[in-house]
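User: Please predict structures.

Assistant: First:
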Amino acid sequence: MSEGQNQNDVGIDSTDQVNNSASVSKVFNDNYKTLVYFANRFVKDKDAAEDIVQDIFVKYWIRQLDRDEFPELSFLYTSVRNACLNHIRNKQTQSNKLKLLGNKYDDDYALLSIIKAEAIKEIYNAVQKLPVQCRKIVHLGYFENMANHEIADVLRISINTVKTQKTRGFQLLRNKIEPDSLALIFLLHWAFNNKL
């Protein structure tokens, strides 16, 4: 370092790095699970989906070291989608690539997947605001796909308590989730089940 230079002239200010890292951490924490769900819709492999999303965030963090601006959520979705398609291309033979890149991975499918991931994120956030016992039961039943008797065994409660708490959870969720979001969730469920 020359005599006329101070530490801030040589590199990135350490305070800016800490603030930037905290901002990147917030973006990561707010969107990681949703982006993993989105990636998993393409690659059908949760470990690969997690790796893809982590790689996107590492690349994003490296590029943001000297910037204060952060990309929009659409940039992250597009980056994850492209990384998923690259993963599929690298994993499949040439003949399989053409089949996989047909209708299933077109822009309409990607858009529906983004909307569904965001709807699930809203539901998940609403579930987190439920009372503790009700939240556990709803989470086990709908995110872990456990049957009522399995939930009762795990939590050491009666099956009737499980049924009552599920009903209560749905009533509370209806009040916490916007009506437009509920309609969208049902529409998406129908669209994915009918392979639109």
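Second:
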Amino acid sequence: MFKKLDAVEARLAVLEQELAKEGLSSKEIARLSKERSEIEEIVNVYRVYKKLVKEKEQAKELLFNSDDPDLRQMAKEEIDILEEQILQTENKLKILMLPKDPNDEKNIVTGRWTNEEKLYLRHHYGIYDIDHLAERLNRSHDSVSMQINKMLRNRRAYIKSYA
């Protein structure tokens, strides 16, 4: 895990250097800024983790090298506190390092279908494929597919009632 975190930290440094360059297009700036914002929290938490580990090592060194019993007791207490903080920070890092769901960024509408959406779907069903309709309506592929099936069932029931 720490090799990956070192790589993420190095990537942040590269992104900051690239963002500092002149002559970047707005698309490049947006892409680099987005990537930077995605990894910045991870790097900040990792830096806190490294600082805590370093402080723990210093407290251990003080514990073993000190002759003063009060100083040793303070070092033991400090080590206990730091170990708890390190554990919490490790858990936070594990959560932050989980892969992101690609659908998190999509603005997919859920819930009931409005009359306008149903009307749009009814008029454009034969013209466009389901993926295009889902994109236009900000709905998932499955949601559009289910609504089309529902619409077709209702049409068949309507035709049968007048036959």
